[in-house]
UniProtKB/TrEMBL annotation:
Pfam short name (any one): Bac_transf
InterPro entries, sorted: Bact_transf, EPS_sugar_tfrase, Undecaprenyl-P_galact_Ptfrase
Transmembrane segments: 37-63, 75-95, 107-128, 134-157, 301-325
The family this protein is said to belong to: Belongs to the bacterial sugar transferase family.
Presence of the UniProt keyword Transferase in the record: yes
Membrane topology label: Multi-pass membrane protein
Location in or out of the cell: Membrane
Protein name in the entry: Undecaprenyl-phosphate galactose phosphotransferase, WbaP
Any one GO BP annotation for this protein: polysaccharide biosynthetic process
Organism name: Flexilinea flocculi
Gene Ontology molecular function terms on file: phosphotransferase activity, for other substituted phosphate groups
Alphabetical keyword list: Membrane, Transferase, Transmembrane, Transmembrane helix
């Protein structure tokens, strides 16, 4: 008898209802299909990481060869051990396949695995006295390239296998009917998270409300579902923290992973929060990273180093853009505008000029003649077709090249590489009560707003993203945003 008929037959007299969302295959074929998809996800992420490592070493080898000549083949025999070391540590961090893991957590774990790999490499060359076989420049460049290429490779590969229908881990959702259906719709609308509900189990209130016999029958049925669908994870809706002990006891021998969801879709900001035992007490500890002076020093040091190095490295590009702006339209090359900075201090933000002379008058006239577009301007402070922008300006804005002079702002300390969006003086009132939170940090050249749709977002959405960044700031979040920014800018997503 198929599992669906079996469950229907055995639950007629109980307060538990089972909804099967995938009945297209037999029980045996369904379990095999889920195992195959899980295997494809693991192999795809594994091949993605290996490709990222090999590409990074190849690029580093080309640059090193161009500067100092080709390396001997003896170096490349060490690549297989490198790869094995990386895979072992990445696997230990849960990165295969990393379904349901937050993107920032994936990036954090990838960076950790990459750093450990190169730390072992450097230590090994010293300990075994093999420095003659290795190039310090090659190792350094490979490390830098790996930090960027491996995460980007994962994003690309995951998008491909998602479109091919091979991304998603089957899960069970259990809880009151309204909350379970709401959770089901959420995961169906955000499939890239990778949790694919296959069964919903409706219970009256919570697991503690069931009779002992009902709970025993539920446990047996869940085991049948687990085997039929090859399910490792269950999503459990909870209402009170006191339920945790019973939830753990009920599901610990059935599912490998239990994910708790606040009943009613309650969103609890857990940024900077961790579980810590103090003696016999189990506590939730909240760390305010903005108060951590060591972390702030690291952020400022990175700003100075990257901005100074960046200005020197791209100086030919800056000169070329300056010439194009001069040729395209009359006016100065650099445009500066006052913005709100940290502690509410005003500063001049530098950009390449992308607008025509008398831009404010042009905008005022344009909005008066096109009242329908005034609403678009009021909502986002942007226009898809802005009459003020020059021909060169359109290109510079598409790839954010107009913002490169802000490296000067970063170097002198009134901006950061990553932070909330620079706020115009007249936009202070739009932020409302959030303004005081906004001025706790330096505004950034890029931020969550940059990698989350850029100009496609309404201004209200940008405020939410800014507040999310400020409340959940960490060095890892900065690194992740910087890496994602390169990808977003190259694609020209949300730019106009």
């Amino acid at each position: 008898m198929d599992i669906h008929q079996n469950l229907e037959e055995n639950t007629k007299n109980h307060n538990i209802k089972y909804i099967f969302l995938d009945t297209s295959l037999s029980t045996t074929l369904r379990a095999k299909a889920h195992r195959r998809i899980y295997g494809i996800m693991i192999m795809s992420m594994l091949l993605s990481d290996l490709s990222g490592i090999l590409l990074s070493v190849l690029l580093a080898s080309i640059i090193r060869g161009f500067l100092y000549g080709s390396l001997t083949l003896s170096f490349f025999r060490w690549i297989p051990p490198f790869v094995i070391i990386f895979v072992v540590f990445a696997s230990a961090r849960g990165l295969y396949p990393a379904v349901g893991m937050k993107t920032l957590e994936v990036f954090h774990n990838l960076t950790t695995a990459t750093s450990i790999l190169f730390l072992i490499t450097i230590s090994g060359t010293f300990f075994f006295k093999m420095s003659d076989e290795f190039s310090r420049l090659l190792i350094g460049l490979s490390f830098i390239f790996c930090l960027v290429i491996i995460p980007l490779s994962r994003i690309i590969v995951r998008s491909i296998i998602y479109k091919l229908g091979f991304w998603g881990e089957p899960v069970v959702i259990i809880g009151p009917e309204e909350g379970a259906r709401s959770s089901y719709l959420y995961f169906k609308e955000t499939p890239k998270i990778g949790l694919d509900p296959k069964v919903m189990v409706f219970i009256p209130r919570d697991i503690g409300s069931l009779e002992v016999q009902e709970r025993q029958i539920l446990i047996q049925r869940l085991k049948e579902i687990r085997n039929a669908y090859n399910i490792r994870t269950i999503l459990v809706l909870y209402d009170q923290l006191e339920e945790f002990a019973l939830i753990r006891e009920t599901y610990r021998d059935i599912f490998e992973k239990v994910i708790l969801i606040g009943a009613g879709g309650t969103k609890l900001d857990l940024g900077g929060m961790s579980v810590r035992p103090y003696g016999d007490l189990l506590t939730l500890e909240i760390r305010h990273s903005l108060m951590d002076k060591n972390a702030q020093f690291q952020k400022r040091f990175a700003d100075i180093f990257v901005s100074a190095f960046g200005i020197i490295l791209i100086s030919p590009l800056l000169a070329f853009i300056s010439i194009l702006i001069r040729i395209d339209s009359p006016g100065s090359v650099i445009y500066h505008q006052q913005r709100w900075g940290k502690h509410g201090k005003k500063y001049n933000m530098y950009k390449f000029r992308t607008m025509r002379k008398d831009a404010d008058k042009i905008l005022k006239t344009f909005l008066e003649e096109n009242p329908a577009l005034k609403q678009e301007w009021d909502q986002s402070q942007k226009l898809h077709y802005d009459p003020r922008i020059t021909r060169v300006g359109h290109f510079l804005r598409r790839y954010s090249l107009d913002e490169l002079p802000q490296l000067i702002n970063v170097l002198i300390g009134n901006m950061s590489l990553v932070g909330p969006r620079p706020l115009l003086l007249h936009q202070r009132e739009i932020y409302g009560n959030n303004y005081q939170n906004y001025v706790r940090v330096l505004p950034g050249m890029t931020g969550l707003w940059q990698i989350s749709g850029r100009n496609h977002n309404l201004f209200s959405q940008k405020i939410i993203l800014d507040m999310e960044y400020i409340n959940n700031w960490s060095i890892w979040l900065d690194i992740y945003i910087l890496v994602r920014t390169f990808w977003v800018v190259i694609r020209g997503d949300g730019a106009y």
